[in-house]
């Protein structure tokens, strides 16, 4: 077959069927090159040039590249050398934003996110006067990808915010929440702490949900809620006087904050921590939120394709297993970051 | 709508085995099973005589199929809305003799008007807003479908002259005694055999065209 | 028509207290007893009956429409299309599905509270995406508009089931009908198809959107703390309820179709 320039075939005004010829929109056929697996690792002569340092702009993968990724995953070898259930190197920094009550910056490979926690005094809701309020919001910055400019990231950020809220805030009655909301109350029915947790995506190379959840966990461990002194002279109807102290802080107990592990199904196998080129292959993924005790705190199925129920149960057990390792790695990183400060 | 007494099926219902049935309209194959994809009556079409495959085709006839969707390769009837130097916009009205329920926009590019001398096409002489056109459809780009009239049986089916009188589909061969030439991209009238000349004299414009009925 | 000051109606704060106490009690009962009768007399594993499932009656301008009433939840869904993609952002050679869920201002007990559920549009889209054959209407869009007239609990599952009914009515080609059921968990007990009172105090919830004939789950969301075994039980309970609901929907489609002859 004549090698034509990709996307354009001009053999005259009409092709064989008598129809005007329009530029072909299909990518060129896959190159049938077989590469010995060892050669990929040992020599860097043929290597997918998605330089791990900078996130790739998703122009689209060719058939050959897709085949390469799928074949590698089937053999437990991903494009950057990881195994299927292996996370990328994670690095954690706390106290990056000094104006916030707590903050953290987490790097998972080339994905970088920042999470901050701000606490403000507010009024509890009428339905739950003995609980504080927590709101989680994620913003994707245009520095991560130009398509996030203006309103382009609205849908995506909303999806991430909802997923995080579902995983971290637990049921309506407050059971299973990552943060004990009753500990945020100052005066029953009148004054409570409002926690605003904000996530910012600085650089996106896949697996944003896991990185954001890890960042929120670290930020919460770094959060100090100022101690509040309530003046006892307040009567029931008056606005009570609260004195926010600058010196003493209450730390959060983050041992029950869950992490999120996203499992992507590729062929018959699952991978964790997908990079962006692997994510573009996603047909279905399940994000499972597991806490230290092995309890499932949230589950979201992503992607449009349907999944067999047995596959979902299998993914849940794999996620539980993987998350325990991830939690221990994250905890040691938190301790190291705190020691370094 | 007539039905052959077949039972009513709903999307996802099992119609049969793919070993004994071929998949027709309104059904799809899911591994070994053939399932319905719309709500309607199940109908078995016997295999055409002389084919090697002796399986009958199962299809589902819906009582309420959605309006026609332009499929690439179908012949559509469209009304020209806008004519510009290198293209003309048209509203697609019928797809394969089925009317559409919603408006679709098509575009006739200069190079798709006819098969020969495509760079010398004058869009303003070929189409006028309001002309009814029969064209071949392709998916085109994000903004509009691409319509092509580059075949003998495609082109303007019916049009109104400047004075408002309806013009029939003829082929313009020559013109004479006129202040301007009108070359209309017309289509063959799939009409009965006819002979003779017919002169369309439009008094308002002051020119006459010599025309001849083409017959197949 | 006496308007004596002594008998004038004044909603006191004490009434709010009493309501909360009753709810706490209800929650305790649901968490501990295994067969506490629920407010509408159902047992833990009974779904609300479908009071009304109409089609094409609601909206004649639409290609297809459906109305569903389960207990106090009333939802109407209209399907328009396939029609030209308005936004024309990216060329796609498969069709697009555009979903929108909105609440009327009188849907919830407190006016305007339904705006909290903005994520329902995205979730409806994900649930239906796997079931609609997008390649049969290339480059066009099918619009699904859902309107919640009254919210009585378990809103999103009912919206999903009603939307697949409307799509089937519109003649859009689908792989299968998508039905959806949600369960609430109270302590050790699992309650299916919760009402809004039960939902307000739940410890956790799980929603499954399922295609019974293909045996595929298109959407699964979970909140609260669950153990492995509990998830398995709850998902199996949901799938069973979804299959039964799907049978009811199919019967309804067949009745409506033969009536249309």
Protein architecture, described:
The complex is a heterotrimer of chains A (341), B (216) and C (261). Chain A has one domain: GHMP Kinase, N-terminal domain (Ribosomal Protein S5, domain 2). Chain A is 25% helix and 27% strand. Chain A is built from six helices and twelve strands. Chain A has helices at residues 37-42, 63-74, 154-169, 208-222, 276-279, 309-340; strands at 90-94, 102-108, 111-122, 133-140, 185-187, 191-203, 224-230, 242-251, 259-266, 269-272, 284-290, 296-302. In chain A, the strands form three sheets. In chain A, strands 1, 2, 3, 4, 5 and 6 form a six-stranded mixed sheet that branches. In chain A, strands 10-9-11-12 form a four-stranded antiparallel sheet, with helices on both faces. In chain A, strands 7-8 form a two-stranded antiparallel ribbon. The longest helix of chain A has 32 residues, at 309-340. The termini of chain A are far apart. In chain B, 2% of the residues lie in helices and 45% in strands. Chain B has one helix and 17 strands. Chain B has one helix at residues 123-126; strands at residues 8-9, 14-17, 21-23, 27-30, 33-36, 40-45, 56-62, 75-83, 87-95, 98-109, 132-138, 145-148, 155-160, 166-167, 171-176, 197-202, 207-212. A five-stranded mixed beta barrel of chain B has the order 8-9-10-12-11. By secondary structure, chain C is α+β, with helices and mostly antiparallel strands. Chain C contains five helices and nine strands, in the order H-E-E-E-E-H-E-H-E-E-H-E-E-H. Chain C has helices at 13-32, 120-129, 155-170, 196-200, 228-259; strands at 50-55, 64-70, 73-84, 96-103, 140-150, 179-186, 189-192, 204-211, 216-226. Chain C has a five-stranded mixed sheet with strand order 1-2-3-5-4. In chain C, strand 1 and strand 2 (64-70) form a beta hairpin. The N and C termini of chain C lie far apart (56 Å). The chains are: A alpha+beta (341), B mainly beta (216), C alpha+beta (261). Strand 12 of chain A pairs antiparallel with strand 9 (216-226) of chain C. Chain B: Residues 97-136 form the Exosome complex component CSL4 C-terminal domain. Chain B: Pfam families: EXOSC1 (PF10447).
